[in-house]
Amino acid sequence: GLESGLDVKKSEVHGMAQRGGSVNSHVRWGERVFSPLIAPGEVDYLIALERLEALRYADQLRPNGVLLINDYRIMPVSVTSGSDIYPSADDEDRAYSGVIERRLYVPAMSIARELGQTRVNNMVMLGALSSFLDVSKDIWLEVISRRVPERYIELNQRAFLAGRAYCVAHLQEASQDA
């Protein structure tokens, strides 16, 4: 956005992220942006780095919004302690059916593992998102090269490109109520 000459605003709510909780970030860009916060039901693209997070925040999407889900599960303490049950794939399908028409599960953790470093799963997801946005691949790669420590640039760029390639190859899935 910023590199394309657009106004960009962001906001993050960390909550208990230091202790394994979620981080909720909003990013808005356009000709002129007054607030980083996006009203519920107005989100164009939602990236969930974990499957349960997708369920928690799916109601934030606008009709015809895109939900990109890292096909990865982190069991919360309530599940590991036996007091709760992690939603099944069928539970997820029922929750999204008729509500979220454009969603894609991205095996970001698996792709990152194949690249040799699971920490770049977020970059895989960013690459997936980039396939929907009108910003050239070269701009994304240039920004990665400036924002990432030098020794990790190549790995992060490969992760980004792998996520982008996965999403492009599976875009039809994101257009269906999968």
What features would you highlight for this structure?
5 strands, alpha/beta, two-stranded antiparallel ribbon, about 40% helix, about 180 residues, Pyruvate-ferredoxin Oxidoreductase, domain 3
Helix and strand arrangement:
Blueprint: E1 7-13, E2 24-30, E3 43-48, H1 51-57, E4 61-70, H2 77-80, H3 89-96, E5 102-106, H4 108-115, H5 121-130, H6 137-147, H7 153-169, H8 171-174
Parallel strand pairs: 3-4, 4-5
Antiparallel strand pairs: 1-2
Care to describe what's here?
The chain is an alpha/beta fold and 178 residues long. It has two domains: 1-37, no CATH class; 40-174, Pyruvate-ferredoxin Oxidoreductase, domain 3 (3-Layer(aba) Sandwich), CATH 3.40.920. Helices cover 39% and strands 20% of the residues. Helix 1 links the parallel strand 3 and strand 4. Helix 4 crosses helix 5 (121-130) and helix 6 packs antiparallel against helix 7 (153-169). The mean pLDDT is 87.
CATH architecture of the largest domain: 3-Layer(aba) Sandwich
C-alpha Rg (nearest Å): 16 Å
Q: Please count the beta strands (DSSP E, at least 2 residues each).
A: 5
From the N-terminal CA to the C-terminal CA, the straight-line distance is 30 Å
Average pLDDT taken over every residue: 87
Q: Look at the structure and give the CATH class of the largest domain.
A: Alpha Beta
CATH 4th-level superfamily of the largest domain? Pyruvate-ferredoxin oxidoreductase, PFOR, domain III
Q: What is the overall number of helices?
A: 8
